[in-house]
Amino acid sequence: MSQDTPPKWITKLLERFLDPYLFNGIYGDLLEDYHDNLQTGKRAQANRIFVLSAMGFIRYHSLLNFQGKNQNTTSMDIWINYFKSSIRNLTKNKRNTFISLLGLVVSFITAVAIFQYCYFESSYDTFHSQSKNLYRVSHIFTNSSNTSQHATTFFAAKDAMSNEIAEIEKATHIFNVTGIIKKDQEVYEEDNVIFTTPQFFEMFGFSLIQGNYQDLEDPDVIMLPQSIALKYFGDEDPLGKILEIQNMFGENWEMKVAGVFEDFPANSHLKTSIMLPMSRLIHTGEAGNIFGNAITFDQVKWRWLSFHTYMKLTEGADIDGVTESANKIVERNRAPVNAQLNQKHAIWLQPVNEIHTTTGIEMEPFPTIEKKVITLFLLIGIFILLIAWINYVNISTARAVTRGKEVGIRKVMGSYKSQLRMQFLLEPFILNVAALVLAITALVPLIPFLESITDVPFFTSVLDNHLLIGLVIGIVALGSVLSGAYPAFILSNYETIEVLKGKFGFSSKGVMLRRVLVVVQLIFSIFLVASLLVVQSQMQFMLDHELGVNIDRVILIDGPVNEVNNDNYEGKMETLKNELLAISGVQTVSTSSLVPGIENIWRGSTESRNGEEAGVFLHRGFIGYNYMDLYDIQLLAGRNFDRDFETDRTALIVNELTVKNLGFESPQAALDEEIHFTDGSFKIVGVVSNFYQRGVQFAFEPMTFQLDTANTGNYLSVKVATSELNHVAVSIEAAYKNIFPDSPYQSRYVDDIFQAQYTSEQRFRNLFTSFTLVALIIACLGLIGLSSHLMNQKLKEVSIRKVLGAANSQLFVILNKEYVLVGIVSFVLTVPLIMILMQQWLDNYQNRITVHLGFYLVPFFVVMGIILITTLGYTLKVIKTNPAVTLKEE
Amino acid sequence: MIMKGTNLGELEELVLLVVANLDDDAYGLAIRNYIKAKCERSVSISTVHATLHRLELKGFVSSRYDSQATGERGGRPKLLFTITASGERAMRYTRDLRNNLWSTIPKLSFNQSI
């Protein structure tokens, strides 16, 4: 029958607080009512009614047992008294209370924001019902010059593995493209158009609202997320409607909407705007529209490496065993090609819920975050809370002496030590609760701001996040105990007689602890300032770094994907180029298949040749005649592509790294050498210096460039000579629209693209800066409160010294000596911390600053400066006091 | 005459009437349910108990625990209320007072307001 009992804690509360005579009658009534409600409704509802009914009794003092029924004072009276004296004491010292409260409120808001950020970032892909059995087949690619990890694997891997390995329950794979959508004469560009199989819906926790996922077998259907369905069809029922999709293969598809699914949650590493059937991609491949007719689709299956492949393993499957079998399958199928290209392919199973917190994997469609960063922010959040609590401890221990008489009298009246401790714990509890209420009130209007700086969606209502509520209660409980324990301990230990005789004064109790706590605060502060300095310098270093390529004032136009296969495409492109050049302000125009700042996805390996090393992994790209000029890439040897050379169709320009990887001694030595790829042989005609194809956090990449003859390049870079970029951009758009009226116009500035690669770094920097400032402000607040108090206590000492002839400068030294000493101790303790942690952080970067002495000294002086400025006001006040005033009362 | 301070409030009067109606079985929840059913008025258990307590302090009802306990009350006996003599007097007084006042309303005052 335990099923039918209401919450136990309520029973205890009622028994504790209700009038003992009435208790049985009332409790019986409540139970009876509870059983009645169980008959008619759900248990949860009955529970709720029970709790509410029981809570109703709070309103009626006459029914509670402290209302004069018992002649003795009950503990309730004592608690009420404690509450009153806590409130009185808090309101008596308005400034201290304000400082503690402000510190707590700010730290709570910041901590909640930080914790929400960390929680969200680590919650990725945990919503799939069986997320722990879901794995992505990630790929390790090794050749003679490097090893890299990829998020994608071979097309054929999915089928081969799920056929042969029993532990694989389900498998699917995804191919991600950009598509052009046509509807009602309008053209739209959609990213994250994915091809996939129906199993996608069986494996992941995404649910279809309309339609049947099996229909995704049909090559002529698409499925849309709700938001996209709304975008294209508004209020109409999207099912059965037709969308026209043009794709990178130049085909024009009319697809029928067969399903609508819920938008993927924000914490999903998979994102999609349109879902296409994988069977359609296979048809396109078989028709020769992807790789041409020279090679059959079957031949491509174990070469095409662009599929994000997922598998769901059976419960308790042996991961190592599955990995081993999967590797054998890859090895067997790739053996002939691997030998020819001197490559190695291995796969590993990456748990899906760890994808977002793993970095360093190529072909990862969306930015990921390092676990270390999450931990770092978590630590800062805890620092900030600790700093605020330490403020309270410091101020209240410093003020402990003033409450001596109260303690003495309470003891004489018969208070137990334990009761006094409870009393002094109540005060921080009230303060923490008040701070929490204020923080939550302030948090609500701050949510949009917090969302914009963290780039993480916040709970819309505070109550829908159970974890957060637990956290908040935890913070208050922990805060009260941590910040109240020591003051409570000191205060309750005062000797009654001595206190009442007036023999208490500058108690040395707590001084040591206070120093230790101040040191802890300073360590946090110095460390945060130092880290801030390192982070800022590293960012600036990356932004200012010489790229080897000039990306200023270059406008990048995405070529018309939907026109590529048209016969007159080349001619139209030529016309566009000429028209663009005619615009005043346009300096150079060049097409290309790659541009700085965007990860180049076309890579190839050289084929083996007699006596030479084979399988050198190289990046490949098409560029127009003017590309090198346009981007100011320095030519080291040989020549640029030239219209005068007919043979340039099979010519190659490479960079220094390629020269080195191919094993040539010097750029000159590489000239006129031939390189063989699967699709032909190319002669090196020029060597350019290394440049950053991607952000400087990545290493140089070995590049090879072919001449973009058939306008295979889908990017059009336009170098503008004047600084009036916007003006020119308008003319460029007009020219484009004139020639390609059916294609969406998309343009960007190349330096923006480049900057965008530092987005996650920038966000890290912004968050870090804000949090550090908050921590410093809170620490300062505490110092203001503490120093004002300590200075006042030293008033008499200073007066006597003045009477005896001390100079102001000497007094200044005496008053601030302690702070400087504490500061130096903290600094010494912080140095190793900075050394280890910052080195570790910087090691993530390919191009990094070195940590020099300045990174230690500047934070020290900044923090010391802040301390001295904070205390300066009080120091001056104390020094200026007239000794006659202070001393006359003795 | 009724002394000042022993007047019946509206809810008090209602509860007294219900206690009288329920006779032997007048306890908190039953009273609450009766009011809910007959008056279509929702009062909480705590309010009923508070009112009963107030009535007991005024001496209008007396309480005693039922000698037998039932299972669905978790073995807790019912706290039963009965109306005292002064309680009955107070009820009658209130009713008479009201009837008197009703009977002396001049006809005109209703006609005017309608």
| Class per helix and strand makeup of chain A | alpha+beta
CATH homologous superfamily placement of chain B: Winged helix-like DNA-binding domain superfamily/Winged helix DNA-binding domain
Distance between the termini of chain B: 35 Å
Count of separate structural domains of chain B: 1
- Report on the biggest sheet of chain A: 11 strands, mixed
Number of strands of chain B: 2
Quick one: overall form of chain B?
elongated
Name its key features.
heterodimer, A: 890 residues, 11-stranded mixed beta sheet, 28 helices, 51% helix, 16% strand, globular, B: 114 residues, alpha+beta, Arc Repressor Mutant, subunit A, two-stranded antiparallel ribbon, 5 helices, 57% helix, elongated, transmembrane (chain A), Macrolide_Exporter_MacB (chain A), Permease_put_prefix (chain A), membrane (chain A), ABC transporter permease (chain A)
What layout of secondary structure does this protein have?
The complex is a heterodimer of chains A (890) and B (114).
Chain A: H1 8-17, H2 20-40, H3 43-55, H4 75-92, H5 94-122, E1 134-142, E2 147-150, H6 157-164, E3 168-183, E4 186-196, H7 199-203, E5 208-211, E6 221-225, H8 226-233, E7 242-246, E8 252-261, E9 274-277, H9 278-286, H10 297-300, E10 308-313, H11 319-341, E11 344-351, H12 371-398, H13 404-412, H14 417-454, H15 466-492, H16 496-501, H17 511-544, E12 554-558, H18 569-582, E13 586-592, E14 603-605, E15 617-623, H19 627-630, E16 635-638, E17 651-655, H20 656-662, H21 667-670, E18 674-677, E19 680-688, E20 703-707, E21 715-720, H22 725-739, E22 747-749, H23 750-756, H24 759-793, H25 795-803, H26 808-842, H27 854-880, H28 883-887
Parallel strand pairs in A: 4-9, 6-8, 15-20, 17-19
Antiparallel strand pairs in A: 1-2, 1-10, 1-11, 3-4, 3-7, 3-10, 5-8, 7-8, 12-21, 12-22, 13-21, 14-15, 16-19, 17-20, 18-19
Chain B: H1 10-22, H2 28-39, H3 45-58, E1 61-69, E2 77-83, H4 85-103, H5 107-113
Antiparallel strand pairs in B: 1-2
Helix pairs in contact in B: 1-2, 1-3, 2-3
